UniProtKB/TrEMBL annotation:
Lineage summary: Eukaryota, Fungi, Dikarya, Ascomycota, Pezizomycotina
UniProt KW Cytoplasm keyword: no
Domain of life from the UniProt record: Eukaryota
UniProt KW Electron transport keyword: no
Species name: Diaporthe ampelina
Protein name: Putative glucokinase
Any one Gene Ontology BP term: carbohydrate metabolic process
């Protein structure tokens, strides 16, 4: 006997879990808009993008920016490798080098 425990279509109509602006944007711009809403909020495939968008907003909302937020964005964008800068085109990296 086999049992499928797939739950990606749970809350398809957004009646159980609240939707954030990040969820709405990811769904609108991503694959299968309106489908797999639960999966888009919990799977590793989408969590990177959700984290990236929320950190960008956090950085924008802080006047001077947040050093930790900039470091996270650099990591998410692939500009750090074991703590070393691997690209020089990320804005502001000269202010962010960790000792």
């Amino acid at each position: 006997m086999f049992m499928s425990i797939e739950c990606g279509s749970f809350n398809r109509k957004l009646s159980v879990l609240p939707a954030t602006p990040y969820d709405t944007e990811l769904d609108r711009d991503g694959v299968n808009p309106g489908n797999q809403m639960f999966e888009k909020r919990t799977s590793a495939t989408f969590l990177r993008e959700l984290l990236h968008e929320s950190i960008e907003d956090l950085e924008v909302s802080a006047d001077a920016g947040c050093r930790f937020c900039k470091l996270l964005l650099a990591c998410l964008n692939g500009y750090l490798d074991n703590g070393n800068w691997i690209a020089g085109d990320w804005k502001g990296e000269e202010n962010l080098i960790m000792q």
